[in-house]
Fold this sequence. Notes:
Number of strands: 17
Order of helices and strands: EHEHEEEHEHEEEEEEEEEEE
Shape: elongated
Distance between the termini: 59 Å
CATH superfamily of the largest domain: S-adenosyl-l-methionine hydroxide adenosyltransferase, N-terminal
Strand order of the largest sheet: 2-1-3-5-4-6-7
Number of domains: 2
Radius of gyration: 20 Å
CATH class of the largest domain: Alpha Beta
CATH architecture of the largest domain: 3-Layer(aba) Sandwich
Structural class: alpha+beta
Strand content: 25-35%
Amino acid sequence: MMKKTQQKIITLTTDFGNEDNYVACMKGVILSINPFVRIVDNTHNLDSFDVEKAAFNILNMYRYFPAGTIHVAVVDPGVGSRRRSIIVSADEYYFVGPDNGIFGYIIEKCRNVQIYSATKEDYYLPQPSSTFHGRDIFAPVASHLSLKIPPGTFGNKISNYKKLKFIKPSVKNNEMTGKIIYRDKFGNLVTNISSNHAGKISNIKIDNIVIPRLSNTYSDVKKGEFLALIGSSGYLEISVNRGSAADVVNSNADITCLLK
């Protein structure tokens, strides 16, 4: 039996939902190749086809796992097209999925990054479907990778990958303008304004709502009131205490803050 310290972890991030058998099929493939691997579900309820939201989710999740963890991500509107399947090795972690920008934030923010095309069909299921690469390509590639097969074995190293550049807030005079990049299950709206600016901003505006200052916790304001705080992701969030900001605020609206 494999020792605990040797057990590999594979995480799964998809937009498949929980109603169908897609996730179970991926897990079955993984366990058929390596029955000793540990599978952890990150989420399967991402907005369908929203690659940017998936990329942000993965960015804020991956580093809380042990080094060597393999993160599989399948939000893949281009499945079956000419887009490539890739393996990303980044700061002691591995990422397996489509070359559609889903690992763009990881590639940009990590320091030691190598990217490989996963083209060797010996590591796929036989006759892979053109509509379910999660089961037929990404799951078996990840499971073989968990058996300590080097990533270069699956295909050539590449440099012309699909990029997804993290858009930084703009600053003009004493005003910073950002945007909403993520909505969580509670209706909190995560912006692209990082905690680096936490001590400098005030008078936060979005739509017709003005929030005079940052809060530390949701309970700093009364139930139903708006607030702004630095969330667990390290970015400014627009929230409602025991309510949903997303139900009230236009998520496409800009966020403006005064800089001290």
